[in-house]
Amino acid sequence: MKKFFSFTAAMLLMMSLLLAGCSSDDGKKEEGKSKEEPKTEKPAEMILATTTSTQDSGLLDELIPAFEEKYNVKVKTIAVGTGEALAMGTRGEADALLTHAPKSEQEIVDSGDAINYKRVMYNDFIIVGPSADPAKINGLNINDAFAKINEENAVFVSRGDDSGTHKKELDIWASADLDPESNSNYLESGQGMGQTLQLAAEKQGYVLTDRATYLAQKSNLSDFEILVEGDEILKNIYHVMQVNPEKHDKVNAESGKQFVEFMISDEAHAIIEKFGVSEYGEALFYSDRE
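Predicted structure:
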């Protein structure tokens, strides 16, 4: 009889130990669960259509990561000429636009394809060309420089791509009452600013460029220098805008709006004002908020 009670007591003790062990294991599992990192929300995705100068200069490499981190958004950047970037906006193929052709920009705002239109920054256009300066334009005003290039039948490389730079170039030819096609050495690259600068250097020709892209590419352009700068007409203003979700229902309205807000924020403008200073000794863009 005593043996039976001893056996029963032993069994009960073993069961209580097993239960205690299970309880302890469950507690550890629960504790482990509580220490798991909370799941991060999948980032939203948006498309930014912009001009090549913002990419070729390297500015977007500073701005986009800061925006993505702040708003948990993954940005697909499409860098094309301003004309094509604006056309993407009118087709609802982008969520936000960052461009530099105010007259053309105003047209898509007036048409209702873009909203939340804000000025962001500026730099300037310059004429660069071979150090030998065969047409002798160094120091001339912009209209006289274009006239001299035509008169001397000197090589001039145009982007020819309906970009903001190309639009500005055509405005200058018109203001000087000149037809660039009358110059047999007038070439159109059909490329972005970086490639157009490279072609101009190869051909030892003149080219209108934004200052930021030129400075960023300068080390790759042998015997090339700034020859004409400073005219008021050469100011290069950049705007940001949101593609109108009421007209284009497939756009990411929230991220488009956030991008505009970011680009006019103190955080973005601190990045813009510092960009290029340490490397080139001067800012490549200047803050220009309304």
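Summary: Confidence is low (pLDDT under 50) at residues 1-5, 7-13.
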